[in-house]
Amino acid sequence: MEFAKVTTLMKATALEIAILTGHLVLYPTGIVAERLAPAPSDAPDGGPDGRPGKGSARGRRPVLLLHGFVDNRSVFVLLRRSLARHGRDGIESLNYSPLTCDLRAAAELLGRRVEEIRARTGHAEVDIVGHSLGGLIARYYVQCLGGDARVRTLVMLGTPHAGTTVARLAAAHPLVRQMRPGSGVLRELAGPAPGCRTRFVSFWSDLDQVMVPVETARLDHPDLLVHNVRVSGIGHLALPVHPTVAAGVREALDADAPELPARRGEEPGASSVA
Prior knowledge:
The chain has helices at 2-26, 77-85, 103-121, 133-144, 174-178, 184-190, 243-254; strands spanning 63-66, 91-94, 126-131, 151-157, 199-205, 225-231. The chain is of the alpha/beta class. Helix 2 links the parallel strand 1 and strand 2.
């Protein structure tokens, strides 16, 4: 049994190194912000102030991708391709500056982008997929800045909901300090969130060496509608890349039932997807 665990860990580590190498090659391609998609011709008419109308545009909700710490939109190349192949055509990414010193400021930037997408596309709601810190930024927007009225589903990949002790190793950066257990931001997120309308889906890996302990990437909050998905056999960098995780993300985004699959305050059964 111990040999099997060591072998699995070695395979996951080798995959992480391969993904990191590939991502370093792609990283320069994601530094510049992407060109925004034009508004679809069949979008419902908005008012003169540019706000979306009461109707909803045809097709699926737009999806906004949000990267993690010191990363950029290039991390989502494969996930974006997977979503597009399965019928998602309104996919966009948001880069926030690596010089950002406060998660709250990044959440405000996210909120402005969401409003811009709503006005441009005519959709009243969007979906968000966030990797690592990106998931935490999106969660702050939803819980603390009124984003639950605009975000239908928030999918988080390897997000430190309870903080990660690995962050202590790079605590010089203010954003890293906000990811440490007990930070002010995490205390805000742990507070009451009555009536929050967004559905949360949190993917966490049993071999994620950035999330310490690994269970910190599980979201447990009595006021939130949460589904935690356990991923076996891959590390932190593989979460936005692995094809089986991508399938799980698509399933989460396509599920429109008001309860997915547990009610508020209930612990759903975890699933292994890799």
